[in-house]
Amino acid sequence: MLGSADIQSLADLRNSFVVVKDIRWTPFDVWDVVTLTAFTLIPLAPLLLTVFSVEELLDRLLKTIF
User: pTM score > 0.90 for this model?
Assistant: First the structure.
């Protein structure tokens, strides 16, 4: 079943198992979503600061979160 009696066949089988074990359910995780959101919102900061004050932005952000 392993192909031959040498140790290399076992090493290949283990490497295949490790690859399959490390497959995730989704192609992204929470850190990827946070990074994408941050890099999307950073260029909007100067525009938002011309329309709203920092205090008003923080107030709206806190009201949205909580």
Answer: no
